């Protein structure tokens, strides 16, 4: 077990583009061009085309919205978020694979636009109901994990620049997920969050340890890394699918759930701040059942605590990044950096391509 080199993923924060007028589409397109120019795994123009289609759809069919973007190393992630009336029946049909042939000279329409996005994307998924629509497109290289799928949304206060929130995932036989919130916001909070994420990088190497001991090591390591910074709060979860357990510990204001069809227990954190005191805070790991189809969700305090995936039927079967974007849209407080991390085992939800 300890010989397996875990896949470590620590995504960058998102940048938010508000799409409220035609000129906003151009702003997004130019920013995406700058961020993706010269990426080897990404056909030239694809990211701009996808950005343009997503943003144009927001204007035409939802009265505007926002697009979240982040570089993924070899590519780009784009998430269109709106509070519009939801996708029309023809648009859903086109995403289900039905052929849409617009009349000659007609302006394509939503179905054609999203079908274009889907063809260009390595990962594509969406969720749409009467509270709005979220569309995810990842272009270019994406991390390949066999057993797990994860994602999230991390939007800094103001929509751009460094985020004081951060998350990271290490996947081996178990999934090890960490969400941190550096005290306050801005560059100093981001530096603290980064220090805590480094601790996962170190701890991920000792994957043979039992979850409780591993979490203790992680928290102690993060506490050391955070000395001399502003400090941070942290939630960490080890999911062992063979044991059927999700073991969680939280220090400070991180909340979460292990959501299944039949139960959705809250993940409870102890008060405290890492890096603040001489000695590391005590942890009290809690063990929750992990069943096939379960979804782990963790959120920082930039998200209100009223979120409940059960509000949106079928949501937790969608790509984790879609789940995170829907909950972020509906529950971000708007006064702080806000991040949500979502993970589950592969093969237990919507298969996306
Ligand atoms: Mn916060």
Automatic annotation (TrEMBL):
<feature type="domain" description="PPM-type phosphatase">
    <location>
        <begin position="144"/>
        <end position="345"/>
    </location>
</feature>
<dbReference type="InterPro" id="IPR036890">
    <property type="entry name" value="HATPase_C_sf"/>
</dbReference>
<dbReference type="Pfam" id="PF07228">
    <property type="entry name" value="SpoIIE"/>
</dbReference>
<dbReference type="InterPro" id="IPR001932">
    <property type="entry name" value="PPM-type_phosphatase-like_dom"/>
</dbReference>
<protein>
    <submittedName>
        <fullName>Anti-sigma regulatory factor</fullName>
    </submittedName>
</protein>
<dbReference type="InterPro" id="IPR039248">
    <property type="entry name" value="Ptase_RsbX"/>
</dbReference>
<dbReference type="InterPro" id="IPR036457">
    <property type="entry name" value="PPM-type-like_dom_sf"/>
</dbReference>
